[in-house]
Amino acid sequence: MGHCLDTSSLHGAEVGRQKLTNSLRSGFLGSKPTKSRAFLRISPVKHPGRQQSCNFRCSVIQKSQVQAPDSVTITADNKRVECYGVFCVMYDLNQEEQPKTWKKLLRIAVSGAAGTISNHLLFKIASGEVFGPDQPVALNLLGSERSRNALEGVAMELEDSLYPLLREVNLGIDSYDVFRDAEWALLIGAKPRGPGMERADLLDINGKIFAEQGKALNAVANQNVKVIVVGNPCNTNALICMKNAPRIPKKNFHALTRLDENRAKCQLALKAGVFYDNVSNVTIWGNHSTTQVPDFVNAKINGKPVTDIIKDKKWLEEEFTQTVQKRGGVLIKKWGRSSAASTAVSIADAMKSLVTPTKEGDWFSTAVYTAGNPYGIDNDLVFSMPCRSKGDGDYEVVPDLQINDWLAERIKKSEDELLAERRCVAHLIGEANGYCDLPEDTMLPGEQ
Ligand code: LMR
User: Fold this and answer.
1) Which residue in the list 3, 47, 120, 288 is annotated as catalytic?
2) What is the pTM of this model?
3) How much distance in Å is there from the Cα of 222 to the middle of ligand 1?
4) Which of 116, 235, 347, 444 to mutate for ligand 1's pocket (most ligand atoms within 8 Å of CB)?
5) Which domains does the chain have, with CATH numbers?
6) Would residue 288 show up in a list of annotated catalytic residues for this protein?
């Protein structure tokens, strides 16, 4: 990484320390711990097509005796991503617990970072819960013009939490800056459907956001970035994002259906009178919408088919299925807003599932690109299916699940819904002849 630093105003000792900082930065948390205190952290800004500049604000570099950094804020005239407050400081690595055992810094970009879901999620990631106690993390937080203050509020709370693994927090309102070098991109920010808004309008408004973010990821993110789309309608938003990021493997794009899987497990556990960790092999098929199919046919409780434990077929086919499909809406009625904490938990679960080997015989649900899928789903959708991972960030779709007529009919309905959504956003995925003929009952889980 290059640096933009004017050392002319620094005293000799400061320059020495600056050099030290620069060398540390290039091997940050690598194999060269030092006894000297390194104190300065800056976030270099590079932008395709923009001249690299050295004038962004990180006031610590102007002080001869640095005790504590000033907070660095994003300002109206400077929209670039910048380090925040204490995260502009580098720490004495020898003071850290076994720094040599730490892995290389992992950069995670989050959109909608000032929102309620992020407010739960960021603290889980920073604590080490997701990537483990030996994985230092950098958080690049994307907000909007409107959420500037809230974004800084989030950064302040992260500062005050003193997480040892959290090495950088960078704030920005331009996805081209915030997504730079990201190895994970958690795309949470999206517009909710407003009163009287047609679903086609929602698809168009949010689709444009995800097309733009796809382009930004394509331009500046790590080539193997893993992308999890949460903003609704998340399957089609993920498809749009993917189509606008041809440099990134299509396999790397996910839409979040783990929340639905968690909801399904909870309902099955309740009915069977067991704790939910006894429920496994639950698949959500299809769209994160009311056409999603929570699969009780292949699910297990204590290693036995759910249908051996819960004999009430009518409950499984009707009440269970609809409860999971519409859980988001019921929650909105209770809370007055969409689920946030449980969504954050499920995003963390989704990431953990990709960086932890899947338990033998089990699988998890995530909506992924369908090319070459073993279930005969149209090859150009983002569709929730059963997957397993070796823990390397990659996954494979689990083949050979039993698809009985009941499942097949419902999976088809969800596929049809996604095909209709795809036609609606043809203009955003580089296809001609789009038209919007959404089925009337096409709804997000939160819409009833
Ligand atoms: C959820 O499933 O809780 C959300 O996707 C609901 C919504 O429509 O925002």
Assistant:
1) 288
2) 0.83
3) 29
4) 444
5) 258-428 (3.90.110.10)
6) yes
